[in-house]
Amino acid sequence: xxxMIISIAVFVAxxxxxxxxxxxxxxYSATKSEERIDILTGQKTKEEVEEQRVLKREMFREGVxxxxxxxxxxxxxxxxxxxxxxxxxxPIGIEVFLVISLVLGVxxxxxxxxxxxxxxxxxxxxxxxxxxxxxxxxxxxKRRMAKFANGLPDALELIARALRxxxxxxxxxxxxxxxxxxxxxxxxxxxxxxxxxxxxIEVALxxxxxxxxxFDFKFFATAVAIQRQSGGDLAEILDKISHIVxxxxxxxxxxxxxxxxxxxxxxxxxxxxVVLFFTMYYLNPDYTMLLFTxxxxxxxxxxxxxxxxxxxxxxxxxxxxxx
Length: 323
Fold this sequence. Notes:
By secondary structure, the chain is mainly α. The protein has helices spanning 3-25, 32-41, 46-75, 81-88, 94-114, 122-130, 132-164, 169-179, 184-196, 201-211, 215-230, 234-258, 260-283, 285-293, 295-319. It contains 15 helices and no strands.
């Protein structure tokens, strides 16, 4: 089949998929101006209009809620994806995430066809572009956890100062909510609201650790739990924890500087085979297609992928130094 026809068909399919999503999300009911005109002309009463609005909202909630519950049940079997969304503070839901991934997967296949990639690479192109939302969510979660870790020493010092000035631990949490930026303020605000509703503060901090699994915050939550049971100077404990966290950050900075060469080498070694493969394909497609048409070529591809993953794991183990 002509590649141009295939490209047009893929483009039409992507446009149709996006259009279908927009049509589902579009609200075709009467606008507020039209409803007001109907009330003024006597075609509808105010009670009828309000009843229609409530009915429409309930139907929308039931529909979206049903889809969300089904998707959450499915994704909960694959690494607890709802918790992953909560940790990343994602602005989109699971259902929108799935639709975007599917559309990008179709676009990736279309790009592979337009770029005259070998047919066995079409699924790879589709999976590559479909993974963009997941990568975005992963880096958003990683960045948010890094901000939480960087702001934790200052938050602990604020709580220690509040305790020394005579405030309770709950008041110290409120000071952190008022003075610190997101995500520290948001997570501590949730803990503050939970303890206001009657949840023990140890349980509230444990819930924060579930959302933000930070090793240093675990020290803080454990210290609060022990202090609640046996007593002690919590302010002094928080000062020592804050000092330890700052020292860990200093050492981690030195480790990052010393392992920079190893990280760059790993990136180059991982990207070089892929770049060489596509370069050789565009220079001599027939020579490269032997990797897909011959049995030995397919075994070589499988072996190369296994060695790539093994090499990436080994390099990651070398440069990851726990402190």
